[in-house]
Design brief:
Layout: H1 5-16, H2 20-38, H3 54-90, H4 110-124, H5 140-175, H6 189-208, H7 224-239, H8 243-266, H9 273-290, H10 299-309, H11 311-331
Length: 332
């Protein structure tokens, strides 16, 4: 099966450039920035209703430049690093398990993701009242560039999620086949590292949406469509790759507890040293297994995951507080 075109481009950048992540970001951000500068995206034109708050337009321009570039930078890093995660997981698959799932099995359908992303851009971001179709208008090129920027941004988001969800489905499939040692769950941390990395992509993108508040007007309407995509994506990213491996861990945990309880019932309750040592060790082992985690991530991964959860709310809260403080200062 041939590699999908977007993945081939990313792999070419990884093979060709010494710093592929930053190079991909520059290749995307610089042309976008030039486009918006040439089209007048940074020129205040308060005589037009849309430009009553010029900083709002500048914030949108920065968002349309930084978010797709940042997303592709993350995706490049993911393509480069995720293969090691898959190698780690494949090494733990039961040797007798039959599994022939390919990583980009559905990759040829990526144009459908582009179509969906463009459709969502028109639904949520490219307003007919926003576009100026008069070529003689002073803001014709600006509105056209911003509309194209919205379309490009949502297309990139759709492509990234399309391939990420495919990888998550592969993690889901591997989770059924991986050998689980209830006493050595750190071997399964590759699942947790994958979730952590993908979750960071979502929260980073949501945090960047605060650029729309450069005009000190924190409006939920500017964030709602990002949340429509971000929240379901975050849920899928957390649950899909870990669902079957967690079930696998729970099953092994239940079997271990059943075995220990059977041994406890068969053990002597005598007070001699040998009986006491055996019974106490079995009780201690049962206590250990009962408190064994069922998520494939250790405390360091879990603590970072919790930290990432609060990044978007803190960013939005910060934007709202800055607006209030500046308004109070200017009023004073």
């Amino acid at each position: 099966m041939s590699t999908p075109a977007p993945i081939r481009l990313i792999e070419y950048a990884i093979a060709r450039f010494s710093y592929p992540v930053s190079t991909v970001g520059a290749i995307i951000a610089i042309p976008l920035l030039i486009l918006f500068v040439i089209s007048g995206g940074f020129e205040p034109m308060p005589e037009y209703p849309l430009w009553n708050r010029p900083m709002e337009i500048i914030g949108v321009v920065l968002l349309l430049t930084i978010l797709p570039a940042g997303l592709l930078m993350w995706f490049t890093a993911w393509v480069r690093s995720s293969e090691l995660l898959f190698v780690d997981i494949r090494s733990q698959v039961d040797a007798h398990a039959e599994f022939d799932e390919e990583r980009y099995k559905f990759g040829r359908y990526w144009p459908i993701a582009v179509v969906l992303g463009v459709a969502f851009a028109f639904y949520g971001s490219v307003d007919a009242d926003f576009l100026t179709m008069d070529p003689d208008s002073e803001i014709y090129l600006t509105t056209l560039a911003l509309a194209l920027g919205q379309i490009f941004m949502w297309a990139i988001i759709a492509i990234a999620l399309f391939f990420i969800f495919q990888d998550d489905w592969l993690f889901y499939q591997y989770g059924r086949l991986v050998r689980v040692n209830i006493y050595d769950l750190d071997k399964l941390n590759a699942f947790g590292r994958a979730v952590l990395s993908q979750f960071l992509m979502v929260v980073g993108a949501l945090a960047l949406t605060t650029l729309q508040s450069l005009d000190r007007q924190f409006q939920w309407d500017s964030y709602i469509y990002g949340l429509y995509v971000g929240i379901p994506s975050a849920i899928i990213i957390v649950l899909l790759p870990t669902w079957t491996i967690r079930q696998n861990i729970r099953k092994e945990k239940a079997l271990a507890l059943e075995s220990i309880n059977t041994e406890i019932q068969l053990s002597s309750t005598g007070l001699d040293n040998e009986s006491l040592l055996r019974l106490n060790s079995l009780i201690a082992r049962r206590e250990q297994v009962q408190h064994t985690r069922t998520w494939p991530m250790d405390i360091s991964i879990f603590s970072r995951f919790l930290f990432y959860v609060f990044i978007p709310p803190l960013a939005w809260l910060g934007a709202a507080l800055v607006e209030v403080m500046l308004d109070s200062f200017l009023a004073g």
